[in-house]
C-alpha cells in the first residue's frame, strides 16, 4: 500500500477528531481540566506530558481520564525490570498510550509491553527531533536517517504496536514497518499558522498523507482563543473540508 492509499484507508475507518491527541502542556491541574472539559468530543486523546505528570503524578492521569482517553508521554528509558514495573503501575491508572525510548533496547521495549498489558499500547520514540546529527555524533550515535528506521524495526519486533516519529520520517518509517503499526507524529501546524519552535512542521493533511495515524497538536489548539474551534479546524484539515 502506498502512503496515500494508507491515508485513504485510514481516513474512512476513523473520525478525523479521533486522530488528534492534544498536548496538555500546562503546569496546573486546573488548567488541564479546563482544557480537557472544553475539548472533550473535539479530540480523540489527551496527552499528559512530563510537566503535568511531574507536578501532579497519577492524579493528573486520573483527573484527565474523566474527559477522554489518556496518552501518557513520559518516554520511559531504564533497565527492563524497572520499566516493566513502572508500566504495570501506569496500566492501573487507565492509560491508553504510553511512550518509551526505543533506544532502551529490545528487552526494555518488550518489558514495557508486558508491563502495560492489555491496558494500553506502547509507543516507542525513535530519535528525539531535538537531536541534530552533530548532537548524535557527540554521543557516538549514528545519524538520524540511519538510526530512525533501525530503531523503528527493533521496537516493532520487540512488540511495540506503535511508534512516535517526526513528520519528515513518516514515509520512511511507514515503508519500514508496514501498515499495521500505529504512527504518531508531533510537530503539526495547520496551514497558514506559525511553526513555533518546530524546525520542520507539517500540516495535518500532509502528515496523514505521509502515513500518520495520530497527530499530536499542542499550542495551535491550547493557546487558541477558542480551543474547541481550533481542534475542529485541525480535524477539518484532515478531510480537506
Ligand atoms: O505545542 P506543540 O504542538 O508544539 O506540542 C507538541 C507536543 O509534542 C509537545 O508536548 C512536545 O513535547 C511533543 N513533542 C514534540 N516534538 C517531538 C517529540 C514530542 O513536539 N519531537
What does this structure look like?
The protein is α/β, with parallel strands linked by helices. It has a single domain, classed as Aldolase class I (TIM Barrel, Alpha-Beta Barrel). 46% of the residues lie in helices and 15% in strands. The protein contains twelve helices and eight strands. It has helices spanning 3-13, 29-39, 50-56, 58-65, 80-92, 106-116, 133-138, 144-157, 170-177, 204-209, 219-222, 227-239, and strands at residues 20-23, 45-48, 70-76, 97-101, 121-125, 162-164, 182-185, 214-217. Strands 1-2-3-4-5-6-7-8 form an eight-stranded parallel beta barrel, surrounded by seven helices. Strand 3 (70-76), helix 5 (80-92) and strand 4 (97-101) form a beta-alpha-beta unit. Helix 8 (144-157) packs parallel to helix 9 (170-177). The longest helix is centred in the middle third of the chain and has 14 residues, at 144-157. The chain is globular and about 45 Å long. The model is unreliable at 1-12 (pLDDT under 50). The structure holds cytidine-5'-monophosphate. Cytidine-5'-monophosphate is lined by residues 23, 25, 49, 128-129, 166, 186-187, 196, 216-219. One of its GO terms (cellular component) is cytosol. Residues 19-234 form the Orotidine 5'-phosphate decarboxylase domain. It comes from Egicoccus halophilus. Catalyzes the decarboxylation of orotidine 5'-monophosphate (OMP) to uridine 5'-monophosphate (UMP). Belongs to the OMP decarboxylase family. Type 1 subfamily.
Amino acid at each position: 500500500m502506498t502512503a496515500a492509499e494508507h491515508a485513504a484507508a485510514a481516513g474512512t475507518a476513523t473520525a478525523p477528531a479521533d486522530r488528534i491527541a492534544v498536548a496538555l502542556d500546562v503546569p496546573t491541574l486546573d488548567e488541564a481540566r479546563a482544557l480537557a472539559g472544553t475539548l472533550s468530543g473535539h479530540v480523540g486523546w489527551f496527552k499528559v506530558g512530563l510537566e503535568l505528570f511531574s507536578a501532579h503524578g497519577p492524579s493528573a492521569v486520573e483527573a484527565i481520564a474523566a474527559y477522554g482517553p489518556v496518552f501518557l508521554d513520559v518516554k520511559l528509558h531504564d533497565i527492563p525490570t524497572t520499566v516493566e514495573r513502572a508500566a504495570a503501575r501506569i496500566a492501573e491508572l487507565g492509560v491508553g498510550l504510553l511512550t518509551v525510548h526505543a533506544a532502551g533496547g529490545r528487552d526494555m521495549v518488550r518489558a514495557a509491553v508486558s508491563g502495560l498489558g492489555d491496558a494500553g499500547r506502547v509507543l516507542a520514540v525513535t530519535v528525539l527531533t531535538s537531536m541534530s546529527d552533530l548532537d548524535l555524533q557527540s554521543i557516538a550515535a549514528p545519524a538520524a536517517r540511519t538510526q530512525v528506521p533501525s530503531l523503528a524495526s527493533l521496537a516493532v519486533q520487540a512488540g511495540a504496536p506503535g511508534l512516535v516519529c517526526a513528520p519528515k520520517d513518516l514515509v520512511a518509517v511507514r515503508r519500514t514497518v508496514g501498515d499495521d503499526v500505529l504512527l504518531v507524529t508531533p510537530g503539526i501546524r495547520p496551514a497558514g499558522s506559525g511553526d513555533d519552535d518546530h524546525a520542520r512542521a507539517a500540516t495535518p493533511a500532509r502528515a496523514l498523507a505521509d502515513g500518520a495515524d495520530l497527530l499530536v497538536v499542542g499550542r495551535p489548539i491550547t493557546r487558541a482563543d477558542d480551543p474547541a474551534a481550533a481542534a475542529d479546524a485541525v480535524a477539518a484539515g484532515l478531510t480537506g473540508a
